[in-house]
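Record type: monomer structure entry
Structure origin: computed from sequence
Chain ID: A
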Amino acid sequence: MKSYNGQWKVIEGTNLAKAPIRNSLPDCLEKDHLLEISSMLREEGFMPIDFIVCEYPIEGVYCIERIGNKKGIDYFMVHEDHGVLTPYYTTLELKNDVNNFPCKTIKESIELMEC
């Protein structure tokens, strides 16, 4: 059974193109997750090579940013929830003491992300 590598320094800055992930990461859950996020991006019409992991705050939570975007920052989050990767967005204001919410697509996460 695979486990988390737990080395955030290895994850942050990882480009979501498949070859860099396969070549730079050991066999672990993070590697599987980043490959799945890459597939999710492709399914929604994005190019994974345009995105990097800008932050890996805790195991199973990936903050992803589009690099080189001139229109503003395209930023989204994906959380691992009981074995399922789910896009999330963050609001500035708390709603019932929470400001992170699941959504259906990466595009929706980018559009709803407030910070």
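Annotation 1: The longest strand covers residues 84-95.
Annotation 2: The mean pLDDT is 93.
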